Amino acid sequence: MNSSYSAQNIQVLKGLEAVRKRPGMYIGTTGIDGLHHLVFEVVDNSIDEAMAIDPAVGKGYCDKILVVLEGNDVVRVEDNGRGIPVDIHPGEGVSALELVMTRLHAGGKFDKKSYKVSGGLHGVGVSVVNALSEWCEVFVHINGKVHTQRYHIGIPDGPARDAGTTDRRGTVVRFKADASIFETTTYNFDALSNRLRELAFLNKGLQITIRDERLSTPKVHEFKFEGGVKSFVEYLNENKTVLYKEPVFIEGSRDDVEVECAIQYNDGFNEIMFSFVNDINTREGGTHLVGFKSALTRILNEYLKKSKQAKKLDESLSGDDVREGLTAVLSVKVPNPQFEGQTKGKLGNSEVKGIVESLIGEHLELYFDQYPEVINNILEKSVLAARARIAARQARDATRRKNAMDSAGLPGKLADCSEKDPALCELFIVEGDSAGGSAKMGRNRQYQAILSLFGKMLNVEKTRIEKVVTNEKLQPIIASIGAGCGGEFNVAKIRYHKIIIMADADVDGSHIRTLLLTFFYRYMTDLIEKGHVYLAMPPLYKISYEKKSFFAYDDAEKDRILSASGKDPEKVSVQRYKGLGEMNAEELADTTMDPAQRNIIQVHLDDTVEAERIFTTLMGEVVAPRREFIEENALAVTNLDV
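Given the sequence above, the corresponding structure tokens read:
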């Protein structure tokens, strides 16, 4: 064996080779999310043109963006911005267009003259798209001329060339993702549309259109919101009962940091809070969000001291109290943002906290002084939330004292596993005592735990947390998972890394699944975000033939089994399972629990905005939007039982 290690072992990746060698380092994944990332990298360049202010007119250079899904997995992105520069770069001897498209860390975002703020901070965006595309072509409309250049796997076919005259301006990028790199090259229209809608909310007055030309009749979504984040909040609260009609809108700048915020309360019990930095969704928050929360809590406590509501509470309002029923969108533009982690999920700039806190605080005081009825409604709701929080705390303390007297502190309905490493453990939440009994007999006791449920559980969308933590159906789930609930939930403490909902394949089973998912989404959100929640897929049919059994998970699979050659139709028996309890322990284990044979679906939270709207629509108090949703989607249902 030759173990020598010398200069010849060092591989030098030139140009964009590194991107193709390790695509995950640049776009996170080669799955569908990575594929969509290519589109957003190109769109981000157009968004930067929209955020860059033309001093002559006082608005962005770009006010229209078009995204087209063409046939054969080709994407086209057009904008009416200034166009990528095409003149020869003095230091490199090639056109600026070629530099931008073929070199990492080449772009106009580093000198802070072309772009004061930008989302694509690393300067690798469009060059990475080029590197990971089978082919890519760019058309730049600038100074009355069209310039174009075409590339294959990131390498130019030739220098940028003059392609005629034009009366338009802007950039057109067309590309075809490389099928040898990506797991799929089929784009999801709705996923792209949802993100583009979000970008339109964050850039008021910007028109973003997405058109799907893969269909015989093209599908088109067009977004333009003159209200910006205010329109965003109204959209999020569309199916909720609000405490006051117009969202509080806050806008201001200080030390080159621009702040935009909209706030509106509803009569629900959940907080909806979205924060952005330079149009990047900061899902993990950061200093800007800390500043916002501090200002809101401080201002409401100051007004509480002067109100009649103060007599109803013996302590100050907490942050959770003042955010119950709050829908808010905070968007800040920061010239030199410092993000924590590769995902840009958390802002780290310490100075932004003070800027946001002072701006939000000043504007809220002015607004509440002008509209005393609004602050009175908010305080009344916040005080009720505080009293509910205190009641919930007392209920949790009582539960802990009770559990302390129990040697295990686990619910009696739980049949636990012997394995102690959570990463290796699975918890099946099973509907019904009968199915629970079969599951207990059929499980692998080493790593599979069973928790049986009975009857319909609480719809948490319609109640406060004190009712949740004391609910007899939910308490066993909270105790079994072992990581707390609501604001106290800590995903690092979960006792099982796979939590599998196993319910009947009928309407009642679907309702149970939806109620459980609503609970996890509202009170254990990280459980879903970290990928710990799964849905079991039990078979719908058992087909018996000559002492052999076959299981079908849908009608198509049943038909395939029945049509298999050599079967005598008169000797075939088909059983349609009405519930899990009809399966014996061995059948349930083989079809639904054995990792080598079962079908389970991992629950993802890809779009928090749409998830919020759907849970509100389906599980909330207002009936009309639910009826409308059912009417619109009824024809799309292929199997109601599943």
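The chain has 20 helices and 27 strands. Try to locate this feature in the token string yourself.
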